[in-house]
Amino acid sequence: MSALIALICGIALSVLLTPLVRRLALAVGILDKPNWRKVHRHPTPRLGGLGVYVAWATAVIVGFWLTGRQEWLHSLVPVMTLAGMVMVLGIWDDWRDVTGSVKLAAQIGIASLTFVSGIAIDRISNPLGGEIFFPWPVSYLITVAWVIGVMNAMNLLDGLDGLASGVAAIIAYGLMASGIYLDSPRSVVLMAALAGACLGFLRYNFYPAKIFLGDSGSQFIGYVFAV
Questions:
Q1: According to the 3-state scheme, what is the secondary structure of the chain?
Q2: Mean pLDDT of 160-176
């Protein structure tokens, strides 16, 4: 029930918020201008990640709150806070075109905070049976590499109208099904909310796109997938 509420809420909020975010992007000049490498012909707002993040975070809170699962929200505060930091980093990049070195340093910092918060890859399954545990320095390096890798993979995918948000919705549904199979209700709600937010955003992101996800959206979505 929590997942269904989060899904519906994510869709509705994203549909309602995206036009407002588009107006904000036009007002402050956060635009993706056309050039020889791009298919769009007119300057297009690229602040879509702000609306998707707000829709996702609100849907998660509502989904748990209305079904009496408020205690689960406490364990998700680090994820939602760090995801917000990633979104803000993306807005900064969309607005001021941050250099690659500064962006990488910020990503390493956020990935490190993720590790410190207790979200880490500290073991893997052994095909021969049991598990292989990593010492913390190895766990830290693998976790940081994973988080940064998935964030940037989603960022690179955001090249055509509707591509990144559509693929993100499909991945979110897949991870939601995995969460159901593994009996991980918190993951199910997180992914249901994200799938809903991406589906609502798609209404404005199909060709010809009225707004782009931008780094604020693609990196945020990649971060949520990573954690």
A1: CHHHHHHHHHHHHHHHHHHHHHHHHHHHCCEECCCCCCCCCCCEECCHHHHHHHHHHHHHHHHHHCCCCHHHHHHHHHHHHHHHHHHHHHHHHHHHCCCHHHHHHHHHHHHHHHHHCCCCCCEEECCCCCEEECCHHHHHHHHHHHHHHHHHHHHHHCCCCCHHHHHHHHHHHHHHHHHHHCCCHHHHHHHHHHHHHHHHHHHHHCCCCCCCCHHHHHHHHHHHHHC
A2: 89
For the chain, give the mean pLDDT.
88
Q: Tell whether the model's pLDDT for residue 40 goes beyond 60.
A: no
Q: Please check the confidence at residue 116 and state whether its pLDDT lies above 90.
A: yes
Which position has the token pair 């995995």? 178
Assigned token pair, 19 = 């036009």
Inter-residue contact 13 to 58 (CB < 8 Å): yes
Q: What is the predicted pLDDT for the residue at 36? A: 46
